[in-house]
Amino acid sequence: MTPDDLAQLPAADVTVLGEVHDNPLHHAHQAYAVAAMRPRALVFEMLTPDQAARVTPQNRGDMAALGAALGWADSGWPDFSLYHPIFTAAPSAQVFGGDLPRQAVRDAMTQGAAAVFGPDAARYGLAAPLAAADQAAREAEQDEAHCNALPADLLAGMVQAQRLRDAALARAVVLAMAETGGPVAVITGTGHARRDQGVPAALALAAPNLSVLSIGQTEADPGPDAPFDLWLVTPPVDRGDPCAAFGIQRS
Fold first, then answer.
1. Residue 173 near residue 30 (C-beta atoms within 8 A)
2. Is-contact 197 190, C-beta < 8 A?
3. Tens digits of per-residue pLDDT, 114-160?
4. How far is CA 187 from CA 5, 31, 135, in A?
5. Secondary element (H or E) of residue 96
6. In the chain, where are the structural domains located?
7. How confident is the model at residue 243 (pLDDT cuts 50, 70, 90)?
8. Rounded to whole angstroms, how far apart are CA atoms 166 and 142?
9. In CATH terms, is domain 9-246 a member of 1.10.3720.10?
10. d(CA 46, CA 103)
11. pLDDT tens digit string along 25-54?
């Protein structure tokens, strides 16, 4: 697809708008799509429910005030100037948070996603283990994402944390649909937008009646088997060597 296509996306109850977090163009595309689709709800991966409740009509249009209310500067996410236009693109949309406290994500690595998620774990696909091939593939993806620098015994826990975050985002979407009637736009990393293992997969289990459109944004061609309904390929951000922090140089 092209950026212009974002102005006329196929109708869906839920549109998952993926991003590479530090790519400004991806956020501009998200704001453009949100303005065109006019959702009744916005679900942000970057916000907990408590943070989302701090968004008010009074602070929403003021980037500095909203960023301060959210504690964004201490969150670890890229600069709030990238995200604020998404909030104002649909000024009447209710904001929901799909993030979890950091301790909950850490606990999932040792206790498992189902134990941390709670009673609805089975509904969101967390109660059953992954098939061996799927587990191995996801561990390999986590290893690659961390420059093959993680101890092997951490990888299974990293997969549990990712599954927990997918399910938490899906739960926030279900709540947003119940409270607003939709449509819902989800702002999240492209990994969570994947149909085969991300938020769309969790929603297919938890709320199979919902129509879901998955849009990935990548910095390289994902190939013919891309796990999205639609996708955009953009130039990469010049971020240097991401593996340098691990003391590794990529050729």
1. no
2. no
3. 999 999 999 999 999 999 999 999 999 999 989 998 899 999 999 99
4. 18, 10, 26
5. strand 94-97
6. 9-246
7. confident
8. 15
9. no
10. 15
11. 999 999 999 999 999 999 999 999 999 999
